[in-house]
Predict the structure.
Amino acid sequence: MTQETLTLRVARRQEHTDEIAVLELVAADGVSLPPFEAGAHIDLHLDQGLVRQYSLSNAPAQGDRYRLGVLNDPNSRGGSRAVHEHLHEGAEVLASAPRNHFPLDASAGHSLLVGGGIGITPMIAMAHALLAADRSFELHYCCRARDKAAFLEELEGTFGESLVLHCDDQGPSQRLDIASLLAAQSDDTHLYVCGPSGFMDWVIGAAGEAGWPSGRVHFEYFSAEVDTSGGAFEVEAATSGVTVRVEEGMSIAQALKAAGVKVDVSCEEGVCGTCICDVLEGIPDHRDHFLNDEEKADNDQIAVCCSRAKSERLVIDL
């Protein structure tokens, strides 16, 4: 077990809706947990080698616990189902230390937090941090129905008028008008969004159409459709001295693993960043949701779990 691996115990589990379990995790041995900042997530090591990422939803000042909200997704590839079936109070689970690819920007004059469904979880931690720092923000929570919304008692009791709830079942007037919301913001406002991939694409797309610079639009995907279509190409893992052919329908990671090269992967959907490698030669065909537009334009990194090549050959530092 590496230094970055924690053994956590489920100290409390609550069913906030018929689909969402909220878990409070503490150190199994009672020691202090590594601190975290708003926007951070941890990896849970679940059944049969599954590793899945879950945002921390509690206030960062609560340093003795990590709180997760987990949707029992009917389209789960096994992660959320394992959480719901096995992580009851008293159960132990291995986890990574917190990592933050979705931090708040300290330069923002105002923060616009938009969470769709279970994507509200990192937004709650952000709202707690902004409230504690007496910084301007508003929190928009989009959900199918009020009885499908988790954390409502806490949100309404803590954030008051800074919270705006959008329930699809309460009529068109309740629904998020993203274009109008973005148009009403000042030039020092930063947008943060998390939720289902289609919801996020809609919000991020609206920001692009409204002319928001990418530096003011922050997001984190936790699931995405993986497109591995396209012609075959060659990949050389320079450090390992191994060259493989990546066929259509196969990922670079799969081809390298089959050749005996150790590749660290987690989500296998291009959203977590675990498998990012440096590109030494060639042009990547980026299929991930982790690198931002500027990083993709540099073409010096690649997510080997999903991305492909525009050139006939890639050389990567692996």
The mean pLDDT is 92. The chain is about 20% helix and 30% strand.
